[in-house]
Amino acid sequence: MSKIFNFYLNEQHNWTDQRALLNNLITDLIRKIKFGDLHKDFRIIIEEIKEGKTLPQLRAVHKLCDLLTPHLEKLHDKSHDRDSVKEFIKYEIKYVRPANNYEVAMMLKSVGIGKDHPERKEAEMFAKKRMMPKSFAEASKEGMQEIIQKIEEYARDDNFEGVF
């Protein structure tokens, strides 16, 4: 049977109690190592916990995209789903990054420019300047707040009623 201990040191709790708990965990671990009670390999990881985006933030982005959908369908005169709205909004709020080498190669391949094509260098330089949407998964908690604000600003600037 394996036990997983999650031990959090933070400023909101009593430091004396936290030190005592950590000391007990370490003492127990040393005792098990000393008397051979550990029969499997184990690992101890000490790392800083970084707060990422929250589930409510992600839901808010999805809700905003859902609210934008009818407005964008009317604007573009075609149907949209949440993913296409997210893709569109990433470009609109400039949540983009330069294309990576794989994306450049796929762009060139899609237009029939192979490795031996005489205009490959020029096309590659052009494709590398292409901006690609970033994933919302890469956003920090603060980054998600900024994304939500920018989406609301976009909706407000374009007078999309019911979104902001």
Structurally, how many domains make up the residues?
A: 2
In N-to-C order, the SSE pattern is: HHHEHHEH
User: Low-confidence parts lasting 5 or more residues at pLDDT below 50?
Assistant: none
> End-to-end span in angstroms?
52 Å
Quick check: average pLDDT? 83
Number of beta strands: 2
* Helical fraction: 40-55%
Largest sheet: 2 strands, antiparallel
**Overall radius of gyration:** 25 Å
Beta-strand level of the residues, as a percent range? under 5%
Which shape, going by the Cα principal axes? flat
Kindly report the spatial arrangement of strands forming the biggest sheet.
1-2
Count of DSSP H/I helices: 6
Structural class, by secondary structure, is mainly alpha
Note the topology:
Layout: H1 15-34, H2 55-76, H3 82-92, E1 96-98, H4 101-110, H5 120-128, E2 131-133, H6 141-157
Antiparallel strand pairs: 1-2
